[in-house]
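Key idea: predict the complex, not the pieces.
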Amino acid sequence: MANVLIIDDDRSMCGMMVELVKNMGHHGVSAVTLNQGIDEAMKGEFDVIFLDVLMPDGNGLEILPVLKDTRSAPEVIIVTGAGTSDGAEVAIKNGAWDYLQKPLSPKKILLPLSRVFQYRDSLKKISRPPVALKLRGIIGSSAAIRECYDFLAQAANSHANVLITGETGTGKELFAKAIHANSTLADQKFVVVDCAALPESLIESSLFGHEKGAFTGADKSREGLIKLADGGTLFLDEIGELGPMLQKTFLRVLQERKFRPIGSENEISSNFRLIAATNKNLGEMAVQRTFRKDLLYRLQSLVIELPPLRERIEDVKDIAVFHTAKICERYGTETKGFSTDFFQVLQAYEWEGNVRELTNALESAISAAFHEPILFPKHLPINIRVKMARASVSSVENVSENNGIEEDFVAEHIPTYRDFRDAVLADCEKKYFKELLLYTRGNVTEACRISGLGRTWLYTVLKKYDILRMSSAGGKSRD
Amino acid sequence: VNILLFADNKNEMGQKFIRSIDSIVDRQKIEICETILSLAKRFRFPTYCLDAVVLIIEDENQFVQILTLKELLSEARLLLILPEDNERIVTEALTLFPSFISFLDQDWFGVREVLEKINSKKGLNRKVLAAGGCF
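Result:
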């Protein structure tokens, strides 16, 4: 028997759906506000949640991540009276199972519902062995990167085209290699086409090859990379660099798996798996007509969006330890230790150049501390230290101007700057949100209006400081 | 562009190559390793400021030795000039994940064009490469 939660302000709809679920042999519960819905979701263990979008106390889509994050990780089916394609996209991107438009009929509900049950059942039956992915230098255990590992495993298990997106230095090539290494093509070739380094004319001849005499300097015929990738993986790095003509030609290759080398009259075939990567927004380029939509559709059978390092800052320490050992091994020196504040600086920095910038900074630090066993912040590149110093000065200035906190210090017990900053921030935040809830008497909608925060964000902060529980103890929060 | 060039010292291939890229790369930005050993040793020093590593491989013996440096070369942008255009050598060369492959019996025009493009892109990635200098 499965548990189903219906969050809808229409009481008759709730009644109908609870009855429907009951007739299917399952257990149904309903909530008529978002707040009530969150309470129910946190109390119970639901397999499916039907979530209405337009609710009296806010937009249902805003609490979707909170619901998905509850203990039983339920599947959420969005229900709306006024569906828009944008809303549907937001819902699906946030992990919704389906997006249904009202009016609902039992038939319309039954199909997705039974599919969810089927899916959840199959998950329970299959005790999947943990998949040991070969990650080959991809380091991290944050939620953001773990999500990417799931996509990596999914990509490795299929031969579908994959598009890897992410800022420069996020590890797109490492992911492409890992997909290949974990796939059934692992013992075949992995052929890289570095579109960022090759001028258009060379990309064409490198990809397709050429016949003798096809152009000046072609004094021999030569096989192209597409043919060389036959049976293996072709990795087009920085595919956004391809010009319009090449995009058109390459689209045809993807459609027909055949191409004509430059200067040749005969077509040859190549059966390869394509992985493409870009740091550009190809969707936006398609709107501006600088990238073909039809090629984009072909590329994105599976998309892996790699997070920037600043969004998985908790991984910085592991990445630093891994690369320090690797660099030291290359230098033929013993690996270095780290001072505590070394990691604090690494974690406080923004890393606009992502993992690549971090490894470059580590290499610089290691060479600066070549004969020293421990890495200190002073070994880091000067540009990083200057930036961090500037940030810390302005922050301390603000704190002392606004709070007079310096009086709280006893000189011998001055904490590290980071500890101090975190403590002050946490204290202020907690005070603010407690007062906010007191003022609104637990009315979350009103608290969102006053604070200017979205509901999800507000709930996250309230949960972080345990304010919901505290306010429930003193009088349940309400809408 | 900062280039690390591997070219055997027994003949003049390296000098010819340097002359051919004279107009686009400042000679002082070209670091030369004349033996496999010196190439391997070079990787004991920072490499993040190298925009490209150009390997002029003159025979199979050298090629086999270069393949043993696969791990060291794995993070470099490699431009390979291979001794000959045969399928076995090219297939093995692909395991080094080069950005560009050319051959000894071809002119240097392709390699030149690639270096020009890397040079034009360099400004965009300056932030990533900002962590000090190595020359």
